[in-house]
Specification:
alpha/beta
Length: 348
């Protein structure tokens, strides 16, 4: 799905997740809340791995769905038993971790910054169970559990690439500004946006940057309204960093015939108005972490960091309307980032 100008090699087939059978919903802490099960193949390994998604986000066409794809791949290729938990609210996180640990799962993976405190609690209560948490720094957890691995991404790097491309597009089309719509003000979200704004400024130092937060991951109407306001203020490109809610921001760019930029997964399938997507290989990080357990190479008490050098982040499909001169300039910027020649901000 990538053009010649992009060499990351990410090919994500994003589809709506099939409905999962719900089991053990709210039946006490031993059962967990909203647990769904699904062994993806006949188990060839004794390893059992569970995934705890963010609230209501399994079919977000992005971040949580990518984690699920990594779990499914591990089921297919490694022959492990898998289970997925969709929490109805943040109050379900700790009960779900506890239930899965009591059920003997070897590795429990949490998806998202909001689960940091919960995984710290679960890992501290069950020190013999392995845990991994996406977008949370293990060293920043209260108890720094030795049985936790943090899976972190250099979102600022791919944000910078997306912003550079956005800045070139806005300058060419004489737009006064570029915009971004974040979900919550969290470090991973801000790393994306900080990089995006810096990249746009390199492409066009005169460009104005607009940013708003929806404080929501699901309500597309909220993100659409924020994007429409930014477009009215002159934004010729809007970057969505708000999960399922952000699909509303992209809807606004389609409606107003300006460029949109997707996040986490390659969201070019939404239509030709998508300039590109800032992709995080959450699926690859999940798969590699599971494989380390299967191969008996697990090491807890640390972070694994995925950036451009690790093919952990990169741009998705770039619109064919982007001129070759922009792609060539983008390749130069990418090479300088890989070489450590560009210092990219990580906070707003």
């Amino acid at each position: 799905m990538r053009l010649p100008g992009e060499n990351l090699g990410i090919r994500l087939a994003v589809a709506v997740v099939a409905a999962l059978a719900l089991a053990g919903c709210g039946g006490g802490s031993d059962e967990g809340a909203g647990i769904t099960t699904g062994t993806t193949t006949a188990p060839q390994s004794d390893v059992k791995v569970a995934l705890v998604t963010d609230v209501g986000q399994l079919n977000d066409r992005g971040f949580n769905q990518l984690a699920y794809q990594g779990l499914k791949r591990a089921g297919r290729e490694l022959g492990i038993k898998t289970k997925v938990v969709e929490s109805a609210s943040a109050a379900d996180y700790v009960p779900n971790y506890s239930a899965l640990a009591r059920q003997g799962y070897d590795l429990i993976i949490g998806v998202g910054f909001a689960q940091g405190d919960a995984i710290d609690t679960g890992a501290t209560q069950f020190p013999d169970t392995k845990f991994a948490i996406i977008d949370v720094d293990q060293t920043g957890l209260k108890h720094k559990p030795a049985n936790v691995v943090g899976l972190l991404f250099k979102e600022e790097q791919v944000g910078y690439l997306a912003g550079y491309l956005a800045g070139l597009a806005a300058k060419r089309e004489q737009a006064k500004a570029i915009g971004s719509v974040g979900g919550y003000k969290e470090p991973p979200v801000d790393r994306f946006i900080a990089g995006y704004q810096a990249g746009a400024k390199e492409a066009d130092p005169a460009i104005k940057t607009l940013n708003d937060y929806s404080s929501d991951w699901d309500d597309q109407a909220k993100c659409k309204e924020l994007a429409l306001t930014q477009i009215a203020r002159g934004a010729g490109v809007v970057f969505q960093v708000a999960g399922g809610c952000g699909l509303g921001a992209l809807s606004a760019t389609k409606e107003k015939k300006v460029w949109g930029i997707g996040v986490d997964a390659d969201q070019s399938f939404l239509g030709p108005y998508v300039l590109t997507s800032a992709v995080k290989r959450v699926d690859e990080a999940v798969f590699r972490t599971i494989k380390s357990v299967v191969d008996d190479e697990w090491q807890g008490g640390r972070n694994l960091i995925f950036g451009l050098k690790q093919d952990g982040v990169g741009l998705g499909k770039i619109s064919p309307k982007v001129p070759q001169s922009d792609l060539d300039a983008l390749d130069d910027v990418k090479a300088r980032i890989r070489a450590g020649k560009i210092q990219i901000p990580t906070a707003l």
